[in-house]
Specification:
- The complex is a heterodimer of chains A (297) and B (286).
- With 297 residues, chain A is mainly α.
- Chain A has 13 helices and two strands.
- Chain A has a two-stranded antiparallel ribbon with strand order 1-2.
- In chain A, helix 3 packs across helix 7.
- The radius of gyration of chain A is 24 Å and the shape is globular.
- Chain B is 71% helix and 0% strand.
- The longest helix of chain B is centred in the first third of the chain and has 31 residues.
- The chains are: A mainly alpha (297), B mainly alpha (286).
Protein backbone atom coordinates (compact mmCIF):
# COMPACT_ATOMS: atom_id res chain seq x y z
CA UNK A 1 0.00 0.00 0.00
CA UNK A 2 1.20 3.43 -0.90
CA UNK A 3 1.24 6.33 1.51
CA UNK A 4 3.06 7.05 4.74
CA UNK A 5 4.84 4.49 6.84
CA UNK A 6 5.36 3.87 10.55
CA UNK A 7 4.22 6.46 13.04
CA UNK A 8 3.04 8.75 10.28
CA UNK A 9 0.60 6.09 9.16
CA UNK A 10 -0.65 5.33 12.69
CA UNK A 11 -1.41 8.99 13.13
CA UNK A 12 -3.75 8.80 10.16
CA UNK A 13 -5.34 5.54 11.31
CA UNK A 14 -6.04 7.03 14.71
CA UNK A 15 -7.43 10.21 13.20
CA UNK A 16 -9.99 8.28 11.19
CA UNK A 17 -10.79 5.63 13.74
CA UNK A 18 -10.76 7.53 17.00
CA UNK A 19 -14.18 9.23 16.86
CA UNK A 20 -15.91 5.95 16.17
CA UNK A 21 -13.77 3.82 18.49
CA UNK A 22 -14.10 6.22 21.39
CA UNK A 23 -17.83 6.66 20.89
CA UNK A 24 -18.48 2.97 20.50
CA UNK A 25 -16.53 2.22 23.65
CA UNK A 26 -18.36 4.84 25.71
CA UNK A 27 -21.87 4.51 24.30
CA UNK A 28 -22.10 0.85 23.29
CA UNK A 29 -19.38 -1.30 24.82
CA UNK A 30 -19.40 0.26 28.27
CA UNK A 31 -23.25 0.17 28.47
CA UNK A 32 -23.25 -3.51 27.50
CA UNK A 33 -20.79 -4.36 30.26
CA UNK A 34 -22.45 -2.16 32.86
CA UNK A 35 -25.88 -3.57 32.00
CA UNK A 36 -24.56 -7.08 32.50
CA UNK A 37 -23.12 -6.11 35.88
CA UNK A 38 -26.32 -4.29 36.77
CA UNK A 39 -28.33 -7.48 36.24
CA UNK A 40 -26.73 -8.83 39.42
CA UNK A 41 -27.51 -5.71 41.43
CA UNK A 42 -30.40 -3.94 43.05
CA UNK A 43 -30.47 -0.28 42.12
CA UNK A 44 -33.17 2.38 42.30
CA UNK A 45 -30.94 5.20 40.97
CA UNK A 46 -30.90 6.86 44.41
CA UNK A 47 -29.07 4.71 46.94
CA UNK A 48 -25.85 3.00 45.80
CA UNK A 49 -26.26 -0.28 43.87
CA UNK A 50 -26.31 -3.39 46.01
CA UNK A 51 -24.92 -6.70 44.77
CA UNK A 52 -27.60 -9.39 45.02
CA UNK A 53 -26.14 -12.24 42.99
CA UNK A 54 -28.77 -14.17 41.08
CA UNK A 55 -31.70 -12.77 43.06
CA UNK A 56 -33.02 -10.75 40.10
CA UNK A 57 -33.15 -13.82 37.92
CA UNK A 58 -34.78 -15.88 40.66
CA UNK A 59 -37.42 -13.20 41.16
CA UNK A 60 -37.98 -12.99 37.44
CA UNK A 61 -38.80 -16.66 37.08
CA UNK A 62 -41.50 -16.39 39.75
CA UNK A 63 -42.83 -13.03 38.54
CA UNK A 64 -46.33 -13.47 37.09
CA UNK A 65 -46.06 -10.22 35.07
CA UNK A 66 -42.97 -11.56 33.34
CA UNK A 67 -44.64 -14.86 32.47
CA UNK A 68 -47.74 -13.08 31.29
CA UNK A 69 -45.60 -10.79 29.11
CA UNK A 70 -43.74 -13.77 27.72
CA UNK A 71 -47.03 -15.52 26.99
CA UNK A 72 -48.39 -12.48 25.16
CA UNK A 73 -45.14 -12.09 23.23
CA UNK A 74 -45.28 -15.71 22.10
CA UNK A 75 -49.01 -15.56 21.30
CA UNK A 76 -48.39 -12.49 19.22
CA UNK A 77 -45.53 -14.16 17.37
CA UNK A 78 -47.55 -17.32 16.73
CA UNK A 79 -50.33 -15.25 15.18
CA UNK A 80 -48.21 -12.67 13.42
CA UNK A 81 -45.21 -14.51 11.95
CA UNK A 82 -47.06 -17.10 9.80
CA UNK A 83 -49.49 -14.48 8.53
CA UNK A 84 -46.79 -11.95 7.72
CA UNK A 85 -44.65 -14.66 6.16
CA UNK A 86 -47.35 -16.02 3.85
CA UNK A 87 -48.71 -12.62 2.84
CA UNK A 88 -45.19 -11.26 2.34
CA UNK A 89 -44.38 -14.18 0.04
CA UNK A 90 -47.67 -13.94 -1.85
CA UNK A 91 -47.27 -10.21 -2.32
CA UNK A 92 -43.71 -10.64 -3.59
CA UNK A 93 -44.80 -13.27 -6.13
CA UNK A 94 -47.53 -10.89 -7.26
CA UNK A 95 -45.25 -7.87 -7.48
CA UNK A 96 -42.62 -9.83 -9.41
CA UNK A 97 -44.31 -9.20 -12.75
CA UNK A 98 -43.74 -6.63 -15.43
CA UNK A 99 -47.32 -5.44 -15.56
CA UNK A 100 -48.23 -1.85 -16.28
CA UNK A 101 -48.64 0.09 -13.03
CA UNK A 102 -46.96 -2.55 -10.88
CA UNK A 103 -44.35 -0.02 -9.73
CA UNK A 104 -47.16 2.08 -8.26
CA UNK A 105 -48.41 -0.94 -6.33
CA UNK A 106 -44.88 -1.65 -5.13
CA UNK A 107 -44.43 1.95 -3.97
CA UNK A 108 -47.79 1.86 -2.18
CA UNK A 109 -46.98 -1.28 -0.21
CA UNK A 110 -43.91 0.46 1.12
CA UNK A 111 -45.67 3.54 2.52
CA UNK A 112 -46.50 1.93 5.91
CA UNK A 113 -42.91 0.71 6.21
CA UNK A 114 -41.63 4.27 6.06
CA UNK A 115 -44.16 5.67 8.53
CA UNK A 116 -43.32 5.59 12.24
CA UNK A 117 -44.83 3.06 14.63
CA UNK A 118 -46.32 5.93 16.62
CA UNK A 119 -48.25 7.26 13.63
CA UNK A 120 -49.30 3.78 12.45
CA UNK A 121 -50.48 2.84 15.95
CA UNK A 122 -52.56 5.99 16.24
CA UNK A 123 -54.12 5.65 12.78
CA UNK A 124 -55.17 2.06 13.43
CA UNK A 125 -56.32 2.83 16.92
CA UNK A 126 -58.76 5.23 15.32
CA UNK A 127 -59.71 2.73 12.61
CA UNK A 128 -60.40 0.08 15.28
CA UNK A 129 -62.49 2.48 17.36
CA UNK A 130 -65.57 0.40 18.27
CA UNK A 131 -68.11 3.16 17.80
CA UNK A 132 -66.71 5.38 15.05
CA UNK A 133 -63.99 3.32 13.42
CA UNK A 134 -63.86 2.11 9.84
CA UNK A 135 -63.49 -1.57 10.73
CA UNK A 136 -66.68 -1.84 12.73
CA UNK A 137 -68.46 0.29 10.18
CA UNK A 138 -67.49 -2.18 7.48
CA UNK A 139 -68.59 -5.07 9.70
CA UNK A 140 -71.92 -3.41 10.36
CA UNK A 141 -72.37 -2.96 6.64
CA UNK A 142 -72.24 -6.72 6.18
CA UNK A 143 -74.48 -7.24 9.17
CA UNK A 144 -71.99 -8.06 11.94
CA UNK A 145 -71.74 -6.19 15.21
CA UNK A 146 -68.04 -5.52 15.63
CA UNK A 147 -66.22 -6.24 18.91
CA UNK A 148 -64.68 -3.68 21.28
CA UNK A 149 -61.27 -4.34 19.68
CA UNK A 150 -58.66 -2.38 21.65
CA UNK A 151 -60.63 -2.49 24.89
CA UNK A 152 -60.46 -6.26 25.40
CA UNK A 153 -57.19 -8.27 25.61
CA UNK A 154 -58.36 -11.02 23.25
CA UNK A 155 -59.48 -8.77 20.42
CA UNK A 156 -56.73 -6.21 21.05
CA UNK A 157 -54.17 -8.85 20.11
CA UNK A 158 -55.92 -9.44 16.78
CA UNK A 159 -56.12 -5.72 16.10
CA UNK A 160 -52.41 -5.32 16.82
CA UNK A 161 -51.51 -8.32 14.67
CA UNK A 162 -53.49 -6.91 11.75
CA UNK A 163 -51.83 -3.52 12.19
CA UNK A 164 -48.37 -5.10 12.35
CA UNK A 165 -48.95 -7.18 9.24
CA UNK A 166 -50.17 -4.09 7.40
CA UNK A 167 -47.06 -2.16 8.41
CA UNK A 168 -44.55 -4.91 7.63
CA UNK A 169 -45.90 -6.79 4.63
CA UNK A 170 -44.31 -4.39 2.14
CA UNK A 171 -40.95 -4.80 3.81
CA UNK A 172 -41.15 -8.60 3.79
CA UNK A 173 -42.30 -8.61 0.17
CA UNK A 174 -39.35 -6.43 -0.74
CA UNK A 175 -36.88 -8.82 0.87
CA UNK A 176 -38.49 -11.71 -1.00
CA UNK A 177 -38.52 -9.73 -4.23
CA UNK A 178 -34.75 -9.37 -3.96
CA UNK A 179 -34.48 -13.14 -3.62
CA UNK A 180 -36.86 -13.79 -6.51
CA UNK A 181 -34.90 -11.55 -8.83
CA UNK A 182 -31.74 -13.40 -7.95
CA UNK A 183 -33.11 -16.65 -9.40
CA UNK A 184 -31.58 -17.23 -12.80
CA UNK A 185 -33.97 -17.34 -15.74
CA UNK A 186 -32.16 -20.43 -17.09
CA UNK A 187 -33.82 -22.64 -14.47
CA UNK A 188 -37.25 -21.60 -15.67
CA UNK A 189 -36.36 -22.09 -19.29
CA UNK A 190 -35.04 -25.59 -18.69
CA UNK A 191 -38.17 -26.51 -16.75
CA UNK A 192 -40.47 -25.08 -19.39
CA UNK A 193 -38.76 -27.16 -22.05
CA UNK A 194 -39.50 -30.16 -19.84
CA UNK A 195 -43.13 -29.09 -19.90
CA UNK A 196 -43.50 -27.89 -16.31
CA UNK A 197 -46.76 -26.17 -15.40
CA UNK A 198 -46.90 -22.78 -13.65
CA UNK A 199 -47.59 -24.52 -10.37
CA UNK A 200 -44.69 -26.88 -11.05
CA UNK A 201 -42.36 -23.93 -11.63
CA UNK A 202 -43.42 -22.38 -8.35
CA UNK A 203 -43.25 -25.59 -6.36
CA UNK A 204 -40.03 -27.07 -7.73
CA UNK A 205 -37.99 -24.04 -8.79
CA UNK A 206 -39.08 -20.73 -7.26
CA UNK A 207 -39.78 -21.86 -3.72
CA UNK A 208 -36.71 -24.09 -3.22
CA UNK A 209 -34.40 -21.45 -4.66
CA UNK A 210 -36.03 -18.78 -2.52
CA UNK A 211 -35.50 -20.67 0.74
CA UNK A 212 -32.31 -18.78 1.72
CA UNK A 213 -34.28 -15.52 1.53
CA UNK A 214 -37.26 -17.04 3.32
CA UNK A 215 -34.93 -18.22 6.05
CA UNK A 216 -33.55 -14.71 6.45
CA UNK A 217 -37.11 -13.38 6.60
CA UNK A 218 -38.14 -15.78 9.36
CA UNK A 219 -35.04 -14.99 11.44
CA UNK A 220 -35.58 -11.25 11.01
CA UNK A 221 -39.27 -11.44 11.93
CA UNK A 222 -38.57 -13.50 15.03
CA UNK A 223 -35.73 -11.26 16.23
CA UNK A 224 -37.80 -8.13 15.65
CA UNK A 225 -41.00 -9.38 17.22
CA UNK A 226 -39.44 -10.72 20.39
CA UNK A 227 -38.49 -7.06 20.83
CA UNK A 228 -41.79 -5.48 19.80
CA UNK A 229 -42.86 -2.55 21.89
CA UNK A 230 -44.48 0.52 20.36
CA UNK A 231 -47.76 -0.95 19.14
CA UNK A 232 -48.35 -2.76 22.43
CA UNK A 233 -47.45 0.35 24.42
CA UNK A 234 -49.64 2.70 22.39
CA UNK A 235 -52.60 0.85 20.93
CA UNK A 236 -54.70 -0.60 23.80
CA UNK A 237 -57.26 1.94 25.03
CA UNK A 238 -56.26 3.76 28.19
CA UNK A 239 -57.52 2.14 31.38
CA UNK A 240 -59.20 -0.69 29.53
CA UNK A 241 -58.80 -4.36 30.36
CA UNK A 242 -56.53 -4.62 27.32
CA UNK A 243 -54.21 -1.88 28.61
CA UNK A 244 -54.01 -3.51 32.04
CA UNK A 245 -53.36 -7.03 30.80
CA UNK A 246 -51.62 -6.98 27.44
CA UNK A 247 -47.92 -6.49 27.92
CA UNK A 248 -44.83 -7.81 26.15
CA UNK A 249 -41.31 -8.37 27.43
CA UNK A 250 -39.93 -5.02 26.34
CA UNK A 251 -42.86 -3.20 27.95
CA UNK A 252 -42.06 -5.04 31.20
CA UNK A 253 -38.41 -4.01 30.92
CA UNK A 254 -39.43 -0.40 30.29
CA UNK A 255 -41.99 -0.40 33.09
CA UNK A 256 -39.55 -1.83 35.64
CA UNK A 257 -36.78 0.54 34.60
CA UNK A 258 -38.63 3.80 34.13
CA UNK A 259 -41.79 3.50 36.22
CA UNK A 260 -40.49 1.51 39.19
CA UNK A 261 -36.82 2.59 38.92
CA UNK A 262 -35.73 -1.04 39.26
CA UNK A 263 -32.67 -0.75 37.04
CA UNK A 264 -31.06 -4.04 38.09
CA UNK A 265 -34.20 -6.09 37.72
CA UNK A 266 -35.02 -4.53 34.34
CA UNK A 267 -31.47 -5.19 33.13
CA UNK A 268 -31.74 -8.83 34.18
CA UNK A 269 -34.97 -9.08 32.21
CA UNK A 270 -33.38 -7.52 29.12
CA UNK A 271 -30.59 -10.10 29.27
CA UNK A 272 -33.10 -12.93 29.56
CA UNK A 273 -34.73 -11.55 26.42
CA UNK A 274 -31.34 -11.48 24.71
CA UNK A 275 -30.81 -15.11 25.76
CA UNK A 276 -34.20 -16.07 24.34
CA UNK A 277 -33.49 -14.39 21.00
CA UNK A 278 -30.06 -15.97 20.90
CA UNK A 279 -31.48 -19.42 21.55
CA UNK A 280 -34.27 -19.10 18.99
CA UNK A 281 -31.80 -17.92 16.37
CA UNK A 282 -29.41 -20.77 17.18
CA UNK A 283 -32.23 -23.31 16.83
CA UNK A 284 -33.22 -21.74 13.50
CA UNK A 285 -29.66 -21.98 12.24
CA UNK A 286 -29.62 -25.68 13.09
CA UNK A 287 -33.03 -26.35 11.57
CA UNK A 288 -32.16 -24.60 8.33
CA UNK A 289 -30.39 -27.72 7.03
CA UNK A 290 -33.80 -29.36 6.84
CA UNK A 291 -35.39 -26.87 4.50
CA UNK A 292 -32.98 -24.28 3.14
CA UNK A 293 -31.35 -25.00 -0.22
CA UNK A 294 -28.26 -23.07 -1.09
CA UNK A 295 -27.82 -23.11 -4.84
CA UNK A 296 -24.47 -24.39 -5.99
CA UNK A 297 -23.40 -23.37 -9.43
CA UNK B 1 -35.43 -1.89 -6.20
CA UNK B 2 -34.52 -0.09 -9.40
CA UNK B 3 -32.62 -2.64 -11.46
CA UNK B 4 -35.46 -5.07 -11.71
CA UNK B 5 -35.86 -7.85 -14.21
CA UNK B 6 -39.31 -9.29 -13.52
CA UNK B 7 -40.55 -12.05 -15.70
CA UNK B 8 -42.66 -10.87 -18.66
CA UNK B 9 -46.40 -11.37 -18.38
CA UNK B 10 -47.45 -14.58 -20.01
CA UNK B 11 -48.67 -13.97 -23.53
CA UNK B 12 -52.01 -15.72 -23.54
CA UNK B 13 -53.79 -13.81 -20.78
CA UNK B 14 -57.55 -13.99 -20.86
CA UNK B 15 -59.81 -10.98 -20.38
CA UNK B 16 -61.00 -12.40 -17.08
CA UNK B 17 -57.41 -12.85 -15.97
CA UNK B 18 -56.62 -9.26 -16.79
CA UNK B 19 -59.66 -7.94 -14.96
CA UNK B 20 -58.79 -10.03 -11.93
CA UNK B 21 -55.21 -8.78 -12.01
CA UNK B 22 -56.17 -5.12 -12.23
CA UNK B 23 -58.74 -5.60 -9.47
CA UNK B 24 -56.08 -7.17 -7.27
CA UNK B 25 -53.64 -4.35 -7.93
CA UNK B 26 -56.28 -1.78 -7.10
CA UNK B 27 -57.23 -3.61 -3.92
CA UNK B 28 -53.63 -3.71 -2.68
CA UNK B 29 -53.09 0.01 -3.36
CA UNK B 30 -56.40 0.81 -1.65
CA UNK B 31 -55.52 -1.24 1.44
CA UNK B 32 -52.17 0.50 1.75
CA UNK B 33 -53.32 4.05 1.03
CA UNK B 34 -56.77 4.10 2.65
CA UNK B 35 -55.58 4.30 6.28
CA UNK B 36 -53.41 7.31 5.40
CA UNK B 37 -56.29 8.87 3.49
CA UNK B 38 -58.55 8.28 6.48
CA UNK B 39 -55.99 9.99 8.72
CA UNK B 40 -55.92 13.04 6.46
CA UNK B 41 -59.70 13.09 6.11
CA UNK B 42 -60.27 12.85 9.87
CA UNK B 43 -57.79 15.66 10.51
CA UNK B 44 -59.81 17.98 8.26
CA UNK B 45 -63.18 17.40 9.93
CA UNK B 46 -64.82 19.36 12.71
CA UNK B 47 -65.09 17.48 16.01
CA UNK B 48 -68.83 16.76 15.82
CA UNK B 49 -68.52 15.20 12.36
CA UNK B 50 -65.93 12.72 13.54
CA UNK B 51 -68.30 11.12 15.97
CA UNK B 52 -70.61 10.07 13.21
CA UNK B 53 -71.68 6.51 12.63
CA UNK B 54 -71.57 6.85 8.84
CA UNK B 55 -68.01 7.68 7.90
CA UNK B 56 -67.38 10.07 5.02
CA UNK B 57 -64.04 10.03 3.28
CA UNK B 58 -64.25 13.50 1.74
CA UNK B 59 -64.72 15.96 4.61
CA UNK B 60 -67.69 18.26 4.22
CA UNK B 61 -67.45 20.84 5.74
CA UNK B 62 -63.69 20.93 5.52
CA UNK B 63 -61.87 22.76 8.26
CA UNK B 64 -58.36 23.29 9.59
CA UNK B 65 -59.57 23.80 13.14
CA UNK B 66 -57.90 20.63 14.37
CA UNK B 67 -54.52 21.89 13.19
CA UNK B 68 -55.08 25.18 15.00
CA UNK B 69 -56.07 23.26 18.12
CA UNK B 70 -52.98 21.09 17.74
CA UNK B 71 -50.72 24.14 17.50
CA UNK B 72 -52.42 25.39 20.64
CA UNK B 73 -51.94 22.16 22.62
CA UNK B 74 -48.36 21.42 21.74
CA UNK B 75 -45.65 23.78 20.60
CA UNK B 76 -45.93 22.46 17.08
CA UNK B 77 -43.16 24.48 15.48
CA UNK B 78 -40.82 23.75 18.32
CA UNK B 79 -41.39 19.98 18.30
CA UNK B 80 -41.18 19.88 14.52
CA UNK B 81 -37.95 21.83 14.60
CA UNK B 82 -36.57 19.59 17.38
CA UNK B 83 -37.35 16.46 15.38
CA UNK B 84 -35.75 17.92 12.29
CA UNK B 85 -32.67 19.11 14.15
CA UNK B 86 -32.13 15.76 15.83
CA UNK B 87 -32.66 13.83 12.59
CA UNK B 88 -30.41 16.08 10.49
CA UNK B 89 -27.53 16.42 12.95
CA UNK B 90 -27.76 12.77 13.98
CA UNK B 91 -27.74 11.60 10.39
CA UNK B 92 -24.86 13.85 9.35
CA UNK B 93 -22.83 12.85 12.38
CA UNK B 94 -23.47 9.15 12.03
CA UNK B 95 -22.60 9.11 8.33
CA UNK B 96 -19.38 11.06 8.93
CA UNK B 97 -18.22 9.00 11.92
CA UNK B 98 -19.10 5.72 10.17
CA UNK B 99 -17.44 6.75 6.91
CA UNK B 100 -14.21 7.70 8.68
CA UNK B 101 -14.06 4.40 10.56
CA UNK B 102 -15.03 2.45 7.45
CA UNK B 103 -12.17 4.14 5.61
CA UNK B 104 -9.69 3.03 8.27
CA UNK B 105 -11.11 -0.49 8.12
CA UNK B 106 -11.09 -0.80 4.34
CA UNK B 107 -8.43 1.38 2.71
CA UNK B 108 -5.66 1.39 5.32
CA UNK B 109 -3.47 -1.51 6.38
CA UNK B 110 -2.65 -1.73 10.08
CA UNK B 111 -2.00 -4.38 12.63
CA UNK B 112 -5.00 -5.65 14.56
CA UNK B 113 -7.43 -4.20 12.03
CA UNK B 114 -9.52 -7.31 11.53
CA UNK B 115 -9.65 -8.12 15.24
CA UNK B 116 -11.02 -4.68 16.03
CA UNK B 117 -13.52 -5.00 13.21
CA UNK B 118 -14.81 -8.32 14.52
CA UNK B 119 -15.35 -6.61 17.88
CA UNK B 120 -17.41 -3.97 16.06
CA UNK B 121 -19.53 -6.66 14.47
CA UNK B 122 -20.03 -8.38 17.83
CA UNK B 123 -21.68 -5.27 19.29
CA UNK B 124 -24.33 -5.50 16.56
CA UNK B 125 -25.65 -8.72 18.08
CA UNK B 126 -26.83 -7.00 21.26
CA UNK B 127 -30.49 -5.98 20.94
CA UNK B 128 -31.28 -2.33 21.57
CA UNK B 129 -33.45 -3.12 24.60
CA UNK B 130 -30.33 -4.24 26.46
CA UNK B 131 -28.70 -0.90 25.69
CA UNK B 132 -31.57 1.38 26.66
CA UNK B 133 -31.16 1.12 30.43
CA UNK B 134 -27.37 1.53 30.73
CA UNK B 135 -27.39 4.28 28.10
CA UNK B 136 -30.10 6.05 30.06
CA UNK B 137 -28.00 5.79 33.23
CA UNK B 138 -24.93 7.01 31.37
CA UNK B 139 -26.69 9.98 29.81
CA UNK B 140 -28.18 10.87 33.19
CA UNK B 141 -24.72 10.64 34.78
CA UNK B 142 -23.32 12.96 32.14
CA UNK B 143 -26.03 15.49 33.02
CA UNK B 144 -27.52 15.28 29.54
CA UNK B 145 -31.15 14.61 30.47
CA UNK B 146 -33.52 16.75 28.42
CA UNK B 147 -30.81 17.93 26.08
CA UNK B 148 -30.18 17.51 22.38
CA UNK B 149 -26.94 15.74 23.26
CA UNK B 150 -28.94 12.89 24.80
CA UNK B 151 -31.05 12.61 21.66
CA UNK B 152 -28.18 12.79 19.19
CA UNK B 153 -24.83 11.64 20.60
CA UNK B 154 -25.48 8.00 21.65
CA UNK B 155 -26.87 7.25 18.19
CA UNK B 156 -23.84 8.57 16.32
CA UNK B 157 -21.70 5.52 16.89
CA UNK B 158 -23.09 2.73 14.84
CA UNK B 159 -21.15 -0.42 14.12
CA UNK B 160 -23.83 -1.13 11.56
CA UNK B 161 -23.07 2.07 9.63
CA UNK B 162 -19.37 1.29 9.68
CA UNK B 163 -20.09 -2.22 8.42
CA UNK B 164 -22.34 -1.00 5.61
CA UNK B 165 -19.88 1.61 4.35
CA UNK B 166 -16.87 -0.66 4.70
CA UNK B 167 -18.52 -3.13 2.33
CA UNK B 168 -18.96 -0.39 -0.22
CA UNK B 169 -15.45 1.09 0.21
CA UNK B 170 -13.89 -2.34 -0.24
CA UNK B 171 -15.42 -2.56 -3.69
CA UNK B 172 -13.69 0.57 -5.01
CA UNK B 173 -10.73 0.16 -7.37
CA UNK B 174 -7.27 1.07 -6.07
CA UNK B 175 -6.09 2.90 -9.18
CA UNK B 176 -7.27 6.44 -8.35
CA UNK B 177 -5.94 6.17 -4.85
CA UNK B 178 -2.49 5.11 -5.93
CA UNK B 179 -2.30 7.80 -8.59
CA UNK B 180 -3.28 10.36 -5.97
CA UNK B 181 -0.63 9.13 -3.53
CA UNK B 182 1.98 9.48 -6.25
CA UNK B 183 0.77 13.06 -6.75
CA UNK B 184 1.44 13.67 -3.06
CA UNK B 185 -2.13 13.54 -1.74
CA UNK B 186 -2.60 12.49 1.91
CA UNK B 187 -5.15 10.10 3.38
CA UNK B 188 -7.60 12.84 4.13
CA UNK B 189 -7.60 14.23 0.61
CA UNK B 190 -8.16 10.76 -0.76
CA UNK B 191 -10.99 10.09 1.68
CA UNK B 192 -12.69 13.39 0.97
CA UNK B 193 -12.02 13.78 -2.74
CA UNK B 194 -12.06 10.20 -4.00
CA UNK B 195 -13.63 7.66 -1.65
CA UNK B 196 -16.65 9.68 -0.52
CA UNK B 197 -17.70 10.92 -3.97
CA UNK B 198 -17.39 7.40 -5.37
CA UNK B 199 -19.54 5.95 -2.58
CA UNK B 200 -22.55 8.19 -2.84
CA UNK B 201 -25.11 5.37 -3.16
CA UNK B 202 -23.91 3.69 0.04
CA UNK B 203 -23.75 7.02 1.87
CA UNK B 204 -27.27 7.88 0.74
CA UNK B 205 -28.54 4.48 1.87
CA UNK B 206 -27.04 4.91 5.32
CA UNK B 207 -28.26 8.50 5.54
CA UNK B 208 -31.83 7.53 4.74
CA UNK B 209 -31.76 4.61 7.15
CA UNK B 210 -30.41 6.83 9.89
CA UNK B 211 -32.77 9.74 9.19
CA UNK B 212 -35.82 7.46 9.22
CA UNK B 213 -34.76 5.89 12.49
CA UNK B 214 -34.22 9.25 14.17
CA UNK B 215 -37.33 10.94 12.78
CA UNK B 216 -39.51 8.00 13.81
CA UNK B 217 -37.81 7.20 17.13
CA UNK B 218 -40.05 6.87 20.17
CA UNK B 219 -38.65 4.70 22.97
CA UNK B 220 -35.38 6.55 23.55
CA UNK B 221 -36.72 10.15 23.28
CA UNK B 222 -39.65 9.18 25.49
CA UNK B 223 -37.32 8.70 28.45
CA UNK B 224 -34.52 11.21 27.86
CA UNK B 225 -36.41 14.19 26.40
CA UNK B 226 -39.61 14.86 28.30
CA UNK B 227 -39.42 18.65 28.40
CA UNK B 228 -41.02 20.73 25.70
CA UNK B 229 -37.77 22.47 24.79
CA UNK B 230 -36.31 19.23 23.44
CA UNK B 231 -39.41 17.06 22.89
CA UNK B 232 -39.67 15.43 19.46
CA UNK B 233 -42.81 14.89 17.38
CA UNK B 234 -43.52 11.19 18.07
CA UNK B 235 -43.37 11.71 21.83
CA UNK B 236 -45.57 14.82 21.72
CA UNK B 237 -47.96 13.04 19.39
CA UNK B 238 -48.35 9.93 21.53
CA UNK B 239 -49.07 12.15 24.54
CA UNK B 240 -52.01 13.79 22.75
CA UNK B 241 -54.35 10.91 23.46
CA UNK B 242 -56.94 11.53 26.10
CA UNK B 243 -55.99 11.00 29.72
CA UNK B 244 -57.96 8.80 32.12
CA UNK B 245 -61.28 10.58 31.61
CA UNK B 246 -60.72 12.98 28.77
CA UNK B 247 -62.04 11.93 25.41
CA UNK B 248 -59.39 11.66 22.72
CA UNK B 249 -59.89 14.35 20.10
CA UNK B 250 -59.21 12.19 17.11
CA UNK B 251 -59.19 14.97 14.54
CA UNK B 252 -56.37 16.63 16.48
CA UNK B 253 -54.45 13.36 16.95
CA UNK B 254 -54.78 12.68 13.23
CA UNK B 255 -53.65 16.24 12.45
CA UNK B 256 -50.55 15.54 14.52
CA UNK B 257 -50.04 12.27 12.66
CA UNK B 258 -50.25 14.10 9.34
CA UNK B 259 -47.57 16.55 10.47
CA UNK B 260 -45.35 13.71 11.70
CA UNK B 261 -45.73 11.42 8.72
CA UNK B 262 -45.95 13.83 5.78
CA UNK B 263 -42.25 14.80 5.63
CA UNK B 264 -41.10 11.20 5.63
CA UNK B 265 -43.70 10.11 3.04
CA UNK B 266 -42.77 12.97 0.73
CA UNK B 267 -39.08 12.21 1.18
CA UNK B 268 -39.83 8.57 0.37
CA UNK B 269 -41.72 9.40 -2.80
CA UNK B 270 -38.88 11.66 -3.94
CA UNK B 271 -36.06 9.26 -3.11
CA UNK B 272 -37.60 5.79 -3.29
CA UNK B 273 -34.39 4.02 -4.26
CA UNK B 274 -32.49 5.09 -1.18
CA UNK B 275 -35.37 4.34 1.14
CA UNK B 276 -35.69 0.86 -0.23
CA UNK B 277 -31.95 0.31 0.14
CA UNK B 278 -31.90 1.78 3.63
CA UNK B 279 -34.78 -0.31 4.88
CA UNK B 280 -33.51 -3.52 3.33
CA UNK B 281 -30.10 -3.11 4.93
CA UNK B 282 -31.76 -2.33 8.27
CA UNK B 283 -32.97 -5.92 8.24
CA UNK B 284 -29.39 -7.04 8.60
CA UNK B 285 -29.20 -5.07 11.81
CA UNK B 286 -32.32 -6.76 13.15
Amino acid sequence: MAGDRGWQKWKWVLLFLLPSLLGLTVFILYPIISSFWLAFNDWNLLSPPEFVGLANFQELFSDPSFWSALRYTLTFIVLYVPLAFVLGLGLALFLNHRWRGILVVRAATFLPVVASWVVVSLIWKWIFNPAYGLVNFALKWVGITGPAWLFEPQTAIYAMVITSVWKDVGYIALLNLGGLQGISETYYEAARIDGASRWGLLRYITLPLLTPTLFFVVITLLINYFQMFEQVWLMPMRDSAAARQVSVIVSEVVRNAFSYNRMGYASAMSWVLFGLIFMITAVQLRLQKRWVHYATE
Amino acid sequence: MSATAPRPASGGETIAGKVLRVAMMTLIVALMVLPFAWMLSTSLKPQQYILSTTPQLIPNPLTFESYIKLADRINLFRTFFNSLLVAVLGTGGQVLVSAMAAYAFSRMQWRGRDTVFVLYLATMMIPSVVLVIPQFILVRGLGWMNSFAALIVPGLFSAFGTFLLRQSFLGLPKDFEEAAFVDGANYFTIFWRIILPLSQPALATLAVFSFMGLWNAYLWPLFVARQEAVMTLPVALAALQGGPRALTEWNMVMAGSVVAVLPILVAYLLAQRWFVGGVVSSGIKG
